[in-house]
Design a protein that fits this description.
alpha/beta, Heat Shock Protein 90, five-stranded antiparallel sheet, Rossmann fold, Beta-Lactamase, five-stranded mixed sheet, 551 residues, 17 helices
Length: 551
């Protein structure tokens, strides 16, 4: 590669033959060492003329671009550069040829057309008494991919932190709102009882509508908790057609008028055991997915029917589907789903949408909810022919249906039928006032304490004075769980009912492990609460019997 120096014949000044041979040997040795280092480098090295032609390239440079050395030496200027980087490459060459040592990142193109990321350093050198540029090039594709993955994970972390913050905010709103609804719904239920004997159909209708709206507000709060914290609601026996019909009506207002929305719902289907908030979430995610696939224009169809698929495989869990199901299907007239996307679309954080336009959690949420309810998902799609997502949910068994029917026929508050003294602890005045009036209307003697520490002292003064304690969970100075543990230390068999408008980490399993008899979520269902207290207060006071035995 190195040029051999040319010398003029000048007998008077020519070095001796031995010295000349020594100089030539040293020059050849230097060139060999340089060539050895040049060829052994793991980085791609190329010696270029100022106009971009390659004078020499080492094996690493040839492997990097997929050319032979001969092909590179015969190639046009910057043949190995990606077209989008040509302008930057010329600017780089001009600056480096002016004597500046530069570094940059760009995209290169292999002989087979593959595009890859490179880090390139340019060093201005002289070769054969002419200015040249030595390019040192390294493939950084893996590094760029790792950086992109790090950025993606950081974005996921920020999203998770944002959702956690939203969850805390929503939890606070839910707690306050459920306290309000407890009083509103409770007073409505009590008013319904009072007017039942007065034959006031109009007033009964007004109260029923008010109660229905309150239940919708309650379900909305539960839906907020489901979205922000991943909390699961309570599955119940449902006729799907009314739930889907109501959800569709709400969803119509969120879809552009350019989407034609049709439904076909079979109203005579068996009941299913589902959390209504979560089935609404499934429908919403599938409809949003269809809307985005159609880019805001097309036809969207929601159908509900009974089906018994044969030789089908679940698109998300890949298990074979057998038996009879209730099928909720969402169809669109979009472009269909490519095979590469279909294989991954139920994976968390996978999305085919542009950055910032999708979290990749919609279909994975659908997968989680459907399979939590022992269902499956089938997907029918063809390129250019749209897609149909078929959610399969098992119908309820006869035994489960009987239990659900018994749950629906729980008695309300049939007058003053309960007896006993209750300690009610709640720091919210409106809720405490309502609960005291409700319990009093059932014949109970109620003592209300807003301060849990005062309630603790009152109980400690005479642990036998109360038959039952009803306490809120979220209170200043002392939580309901902490108060219950303190009271149970004085009287281990004391019946305690804990209720809360927002139980983030409190479950019935936790409360029973602490000795609490029952856990109730706000807003309190009057009929269910009456049945619960009736069962507890009918139990014998075992501590009293023990006290008699000690006398």
């Amino acid at each position: 590669m190195a040029a051999t120096p040319q010398h003029e014949e000048n007998p008077g000044s020519a070095p001796a033959g031995g010295e000349r041979r020594a100089d030539d040997a040293a020059l050849r040795s230097s060139e060999q060492r340089y060539q050895t280092l040049f060829n052994a480098s793991v980085d791609g090295l190329a010696l270029c003329t100022p106009d971009g032609r390659i004078m020499d390239a080492n094996p690493a440079f040839c492997r990097l671009h997929g050319y032979t050395r001969e092909e590179l030496l015969a190639a046009e200027s910057f043949q190995f550069v990606h077209p989008d980087s040509l302008h930057r490459c010329w600017a780089f060459f001009e600056a480096a040829s002016a004597g500046n040592d530069l570094s940059s990142e760009a995209q290169a193109q292999r002989k087979d057309g593959t595009i890859f990321d490179i880090e390139v350093h340019g060093v201005s050198v002289r070769y054969g008494d002419e200015p040249h540029l030595l390019m040192i090039m390294r493939d950084i594709t893996e590094r760029k991919q790792a950086e992109a993955e790090r950025v993606r994970l950081e974005a996921q972390l920020r999203q998770a932190q944002k959702m956690e913050a939203i969850g805390h905010l929503t939890g606070g709103i839910a707690h306050d709102f459920n306290n309000i609804l407890t009083a509103v719904m409770g007073y409505i239920a009590m008013a319904q009882e009072r007017i039942a004997a007065q034959a006031e159909p109009k007033l009964e209708l007004y109260l029923e509508r008010a109660l229905r709206s309150s239940r919708q507000a309650r379900d909305l709060i539960q839906q907020m908790l489901t979205f922000s914290r991943g909390q699961r609601g309570e599955p119940r026996a449902l006729q799907l057609a009314p739930v889907i019909r109501e959800s569709v009506e709400l969803m119509r207002s969120t879809l552009p008028s350019s989407i034609e929305f049709t439904t076909e719902l079979d109203a005579g289907l068996p009941t299913v055991l589902l959390d209504p908030v979560q089935i609404e979430q499934v429908l919403m995610n599938l409809c949003i997915n269809a809307r985005d696939a159609m880019q805001g224009a097309g036809s969207l169809r929601v159908s509900l029917r009974k089906t018994a698929p044969h030789d089908s495989v679940c698109a998300s869990c890949h298990q074979r589907v057998r038996g009879s199901y209730i099928e909720l299907a969402v169809s669109d007239t979009g472009p269909g789903i490519a095979a590469g996307i279909a294989d991954h679309m139920f994976e968390p954080f996978f999305t085919s949408k542009e950055v910032g336009k999708g979290s990749g959690m919609g279909l994975s949420t659908v997968h989680g909810i459907v399979h939590d309810h022992e269902g499956h998902i089938l997907v029918d799609t063809e390129p250019g022919r749209g897609a149909r997502f078929r959610v399969l949910l098992p119908p309820m068994t006869a035994n489960a249906g009987g239990e659900a029917a018994r749950a629906r026929t729980l008695p309300s508050s049939p007058g003053r039928q309960l007896r006993g003294r209750v300690l009610l602890v709640d720091d919210e005045p409106a809720v405490g006032e309502f609960m005291a009036e409700l319990l009093g209307s059932w014949g109970l003697d109620v003592v209300v304490e807003r301060n849990p520490l005062a309630a603790q002292s009152l109980f400690a003064a005479d642990p036998e004075q109360f038959d039952l304690v009803v306490t809120d969970q979220t209170m200043p100075k002392l939580t309901g769980l902490d108060l219950a543990r303190s009271l149970l230390a004085h009287r281990p068999e004391l019946p305690i009912v804990l209720y809360s408008g927002y139980a983030d980490r409190v479950t019935e399993t936790h409360t029973r492990g602490s000795g609490i008899r029952a856990f109730v979520t706000k807003p309190v269902d009057v009929g269910t609460f009456f049945a619960l207290l009736a069962g507890i207060l009918k139990e014998p006071r075992r501590h009293a019997a023990a006290a008699v035995g000690r006398t």
